[in-house]
Design a protein that fits this description.
This protein is mainly β. It folds into two domains: 36 residues; 127 residues, Nucleoside Triphosphate Pyrophosphohydrolase (Alpha-Beta Complex), CATH 3.90.79. It has two helices and twelve strands; from the N terminus they run ββββββαβββββαβ. The chain is elongated and about 60 Å long.
Length: 171
C-alpha cells in the first residue's frame, strides 16, 4: 500500500532516507515513518488422498492453480494459520501438526511466504474464494518461479521428486 498522507496528522508524506533506506515520512514533524515492511503470508502444501491439492482462486485470471494461502492473523502462529486456511478454503481437517517447509521472499507482492506441509483428511468443499481444485500426483506436480512455487518445489524435493519448473506469463 502506498500512503500519500500521514495516517496520524494527515500531512502529505515526503521521500526521505531513514536507517539508510528510502522511506515515506511525514512532512510535518509528527514522527510518522512508513516502513512498508513485507506482509507475512502462510502457504500450505496440502496432501490429501495421496496427492497434492492445487486450487484456483476465482480472482485469478486464466487457469493457474496454486497452493492454499492466507494472511497471518494477529496473535496467530504460522502453523495455526496453515491449519485454519486449509479448513476455511477446502473444509479439510489437518492430521497432526503442519511441518515447516521454508520461508520465501515474494518481493512482487511485498510478502514473505511461510510454507507448511499439511496432511489433511475429509471431503473437499470450496469456500467463496475458490472456484476449482484438482488433485495432482507428486510425480506430476509442476512448480512456478515464485514464493509458493518454491515451497512446493522444496517439499517435493524432500520426497525425492525433481519437479518441472513452468514458465509464468506476466500480464
Amino acid at each position: 500500500m502506498t500512503f500519500v498522507y500521514c495516517p496520524i496528522c494527515a500531512a502529505p508524506l515526503m521521500d526521505s532516507v531513514v536507517d539508510r533506506e528510502a522511506r515515506r515520512v511525514c512532512s510535518r514533524s509528527c514522527g510518522f515513518v512508513h516502513y512498508d515492511n513485507p506482509t507475512p503470508v502462510v502457504a500450505a502444501v496440502v496432501e490429501h488422498e495421496g496427492a497434492i491439492v492445487l486450487a484456483h482462486n476465482r480472482a485469478w485470471p486464466g487457469s493457474f492453480y496454486g497452493l492454499i494461502t492466507g494472511f497471518l492473523e494477529q496473535r496467530e502462529s504460522p502453523s495455526a494459520c496453515a491449519v485454519r486456511e486449509v479448513k476455511e478454503e477446502l473444509n479439510l481437517d489437518a492430521v497432526g501438526e503442519p511441518t515447516l517447509i521454508g520461508v520465501y521472499p515474494f518481493e512482487r507482492m511485498n510478502q514473505v511466504i511461510i510454507g507448511y506441509h499439511v496432511l489433511a483428511t475429509g471431503t473437499i468443499a470450496l469456500n467463496e474464494e475458490l472456484d476449482a481444485y484438482k488433485h495432482v500426483a507428486f510425480e506430476d506436480c509442476r512448480v512456478w518461479p515464485a514464493g509458493t512455487g518454491f515451497a512446493l518445489r522444496d517439499w517435493l524435493r524432500g520426497r525425492g521428486y525433481e519437479p518441472e519448473m513452468i514458465r509464468m506469463e506476466r500480464s
